Amino acid sequence: xTRLLILQPYVPAYRVPFFRDLRASLSDxxxxxTLAAGYARxxxxxRDDDCTESAADFLLRSRSIELKGRALxxxxxxxxxxxxxxxxxVAEQAIKNTDIYSLLxxxxxxxxxxxxxxxxxxxxxxxxxRVGSSIKQWITGRSDWFFAYTQEGADYVVxxxxxxxRITVVNNTVDTxxxxxxxxxxxxxxxxxxxxxxxxxxxxxxxxxxxxxxTKGIDFLLSAADKLAKRLPGFxxxxxxxxxxxxxxxxRQTQGAPIIYLGRLDGSAKAxxxxxxxxxxxxxxxxxxxxxxxxxxxxxxxxxxxxxAPEYSYLRDQSNAFIFPHNSEDYATGIAxxxxxxxxxxxxxxxALEDSFEVTLTSMVRRFCxxxxxxxxxxxxxxx
Length: 384
Known about the structure:
Elements: E1 2-8, H1 16-28, E2 31-37, H2 52-55, E3 58-59, E4 62-67, E5 70-75, H3 78-84, E6 88-92, H4 99-110, E7 114-119, H5 130-141, E8 146-148, H6 151-159, E9 167-169, H7 176-185, H8 188-198, E10 205-209, H9 218-231, E11 236-240, H10 246-254, E12 259-263, H11 267-276, E13 279-281, H12 289-296, E14 300-303, E15 321-324, H13 328-339, H14 342-355, H15 361-377
């Protein structure tokens, strides 16, 4: 079998189903997958979603150093390369990871292994200066294949010289099939019980799901929730997730903020929160939560902001989501207005549900496998 090695910084919970299904599908096509990863570090470790121990085939020793105010992640990949002898390697498209530089040096000296990258294409959620962007473009240009999260990322690398024939757009997603089953299993009795338990009112309930840290605009979110509670008596915001700001959110709840902090939820508990909510409030850094929103038919209300990840492109204002100016007053006003327009809310919910079938896990796995096959089939396809 052709050996494929995928390197990951760590394996978050939402990636486990993807790698599970990818392994099986690749095996059917004659490829053996090895997944190697380190552990979550820094603020990511606070999100309590690290599944590396159980999901990875090979644990990478890693450490981080600061270089001019930026973290550089150093992982020892020599041992996994020596042990697995891969024909193809896929690494994350991130200049902070030294894996890429090690692969570049090995390719220059030995001519192998062939390596590809997967990622966003350009910097989305974090600002990257001209030098950083140039390095990312240079590294991407030296790879054999690029697996883009979305079409927008693919278009960007093509504009910067990468051959379009060596790109696979995977449409990054989560386990939509499992989430859909969990949502269908939640009945009205459970929803009513959940609402009574937390004093929630239909038409007055919003939901945040994500890392509870400053990158998600938590202060902005809580400010908007305060304003909404003044406009809509009985309004409550459910906050699901964990992170460095969890204690701060809990204090705000104790002080009387119109929020209900539930911590990290998965599976049926997360599905229940989605069913009980009327709208999702994700003002900044919309990423894969966009998929949760579509599958649940619980529209996201977000803002125009430069922090959004590639999956933000799945959303369309007044079609399957609501997009407002990045101002807590305008944001709160806009959400209050749409919550009072039942016909509009129903229309957007229906479109979200319909659009969710465009970004399924099955499709992502198939696209990735197709890309691996096409890449392996292009013998001698490395850039000079």
